[in-house]
Design brief:
Pfam family, one: Cyclase
Number of domains: 2
Order of helices and strands: HHEEHEEEEHEEEHEHEHEHEHEHEEE
Largest sheet: 9 strands, mixed
Protein name: Cyclase family protein
Shape: globular
Number of strands: 17
InterPro entries: KFase/CYL, KFase_sf
CATH topology of the largest domain: Glucose Oxidase, domain 1
Number of helices: 10
Length: about 325
């Protein structure tokens, strides 16, 4: 890659990896088209022990956000409380009382999916649509996250790149990659080889990549976790992501791809190809630690994964509470 030419690299990758028109001019699902009923049956058959793992960070005021692009942590407010019930101020008959609450938050404040209307390339959205025709002040009117409702469930695969490569890297640690570590296709393939056959990656899979960045944030504090430097996928993985025909990829980092980005004067170049051209769903800030420990313990890196985003009509990204079951 020529560090000085992000425009050229992005344009070339977009041409090589475009899925525009692959599933028709009206397609709104992108790579979720790879995740069919047969793939869900394959994923469901992986449940043997019944052990389940939440892959979501908590949604609360102590979360990772520091105000970048006006993103804040969730604000949770009670509308009715036990105190109201005790004092009989709720007005319900025969002694019944209750509690009610509301939350205010950016939809990408914590564990979430990026929708296909989240990123554009030179004013163009997924499937060659004009960005202004897709996302307006009313939200994403074509590829809103609600179009994925009920679809993101199938075979999940965890590649623990942090555990395989972390200890051998300058600035890294056992199970943790250093900031700025660019995960290449060679790293992904070597991790698959290290994990064994259950880590094979193919069509319709939901791929999880652990870097160890969240582990460090838990130990040292949030710092710049939400927007700062981090290990992540190299731009060079774009052809691998396209060629494997995965349905989605999620990581334990804020931005999926390596930061600082690999080009001079570039911002999230992998996003710029993956979302508007491949139509690939990207998951961010997933908690993969407990699942990773279990994968090491039983030697199995595949599982049933359900990860439906909150179907907010017109949203370009949404919170998700993924659950992996082995």
């Amino acid at each position: 890659m020529d560090r000085t030419d992000p425009e050229g690299a992005i344009a070339a990758a977009a041409k090589r990896c475009s899925n525009w028109g692959r599933w028709g001019a009206d397609d709104v699902l992108g790579t979720l088209n790879h995740l069919d009923e047969a793939k869900r049956r394959e994923g469901a058959a992986l449940v043997r022990r019944g052990a389940s793992f939440s892959l979501a960070q908590r949604f609360d005021a102590n979360g990772p956000q520091k105000g970048w692009r006006r993103r804040t942590n969730p604000v949770h407010t009670m509308l009715d409380t036990g105190t109201d019930a005790e004092r009989g101020t709720q007005g319900f008959p025969h002694g019944i009382g209750g509690a009610d609450d509301v939350i205010s938050m950016p939809l990408q404040a914590s564990t979430q999916w990026d929708g296909l209307g989240h990123i554009f390339d030179h004013g163009v959205a997924y499937n060659g649509r004009r960005a202004g025709d897709v996302v307006t002040s009313e939200g994403d009117r074509i590829t809103g996250i609600e179009t994925t409702a009920g679809l993101i469930a199938g075979r999940g695969v965890l590649l623990d790149v942090g555990r395989v490569f972390g200890a051998g890297q300058k600035g890294g640690a056992e199970g943790e990659l250093p900031d700025g570590f660019a995960i290449t296709p060679d790293h992904l393939e070597a991790t698959i080889a290290a994990h064994g056959d259950t880590a094979r990656v193919g069509r319709g899979d939901l791929l999880l990549v652990r870097t160890g960045r969240l582990t460090r944030a838990r130990r040292e504090g949030w710092g710049d976790y939400a927007g700062g430097d981090s290990a992540g996928l190299s731009f060079s993985t774009v052809d691998w992501l396209h060629g494997t025909e995965i349905a989605g990829v999620a990581t334990d980092t804020w931005g999926v791809e390596v930061r600082p980005n690999e080009f001079d004067n570039a911002f999230q170049p992998l996003h710029q190809v993956a979302i508007p051209h491949i139509g690939l769903f990207l998951g961010e800030m997933w908690d993969l630690d407990a699942l990773a420990d279990d994968c090491v313990a039983d030697g199995v890196h595949e599982f049933w994964l359900t990860a439906a985003p909150l179907p907010v009509t017109g949203a370009v990204g949404a919170p998700v509470a993924p659950i992996a079951v082995k």
